[in-house]
Amino acid sequence: MNQEEIRSLLKDYKLRATSTRMAVLNVLIHVKRPLSHSEMVQELKDTCSDQATIYRTLIKFVDVGLIRVASNVNGMARYEVLNEENDPQHIHPHFVCKECGIVSCLPKIKIISAVDEQWREILRAAELQFLGLCPTCI
Ligand SMILES: [Zn+2]
Ligand SMILES: [Zn+2]
């Protein structure tokens, strides 16, 4: 996704394309794994964005439904871009490394379609996580 596409994605969510918003969204789209606020600050350390602005940007993105909290391991929220999440039949689990704490997205899995409507909603909002050692820490 290029700068122009990121700009128009922000526009879809009625957000002005400020430099911080562009930078945060760009990182989230390209890194392809959930990032915490401090990881995001690290990623953007060469830009002029300050921590508080990055934080407010993440909160704003969650508010409008552009990103979501993918994981809350150890009370630390990690954010990822929402895509094709509207399909209630599929959710993607996350792998959390017990050692370094990195969170990775795993391929989507089909959740049991036999569950009734009420549970489907609950499952969609639920966090499905695998806990173990990542390839770097094993
Ligand atoms: Zn690890
Ligand atoms: Zn994910």
CATH top level label of the largest domain = Mainly Alpha
Give the % helix.
25-40%
Low-confidence stretches: none
CATH homologous superfamily identity of the largest domain: Winged helix-like DNA-binding domain superfamily/Winged helix DNA-binding domain
Secondary-structure arrangement, i.e. CATH architecture of the largest domain: Orthogonal Bundle
Order of helices and strands: HHEHHEEEEEEHE
Give the distance, in angstroms, between the N- and C-terminal Cα atoms.
33 Å
Number of strands: 8
C-alpha Rg (nearest Å):
16 Å
Largest sheet: 3 strands, antiparallel
In total, how many domains does the architecture comprise?
Answer: 2
Global structural class:
alpha+beta
Task: Choose one word for the global shape.
Answer: globular
* Approximate strand percentage: 15-25%
Brief digest:
With 138 residues, the chain is an alpha+beta fold.
Write the layout of secondary structure elements.
Elements: H1 3-12, H2 19-31, E1 35-36, H3 37-43, H4 51-64, E2 67-71, E3 78-81, E4 90-91, E5 94-97, E6 103-105, E7 109-110, H5 117-125, E8 129-132
Parallel strand pairs: 5-8
Antiparallel strand pairs: 1-3, 2-3, 4-7, 5-6
The protein binds zinc ion (2 copies).
One zinc ion (ZN) is lined by residues 97, 99-100, 102, 134, 136-137.
Walkthrough of the structure:
The protein is α+β, with helices and mostly antiparallel strands and 138 residues long. The chain has two domains: 3-81, Winged helix-like DNA-binding domain superfamily/Winged helix DNA-binding domain (Arc Repressor Mutant, subunit A); 90-132, no CATH class. The protein contains five helices and eight strands, in the order H-H-E-H-H-E-E-E-E-E-E-H-E. It has helices at 3-12, 19-31, 37-43, 51-64, 117-125, and strands at 35-36, 67-71, 78-81, 90-91, 94-97, 103-105, 109-110, 129-132. The strands form three sheets. Strands 1-3-2 form a three-stranded antiparallel β-sheet. Strands 6-5-8 form a three-stranded mixed β-sheet, with no helix packed on it. The chain is globular, with a radius of gyration of 16 Å. The mean pLDDT is 87. One zinc ion binds at residues 97, 99-100, 102, 134, 136-137.
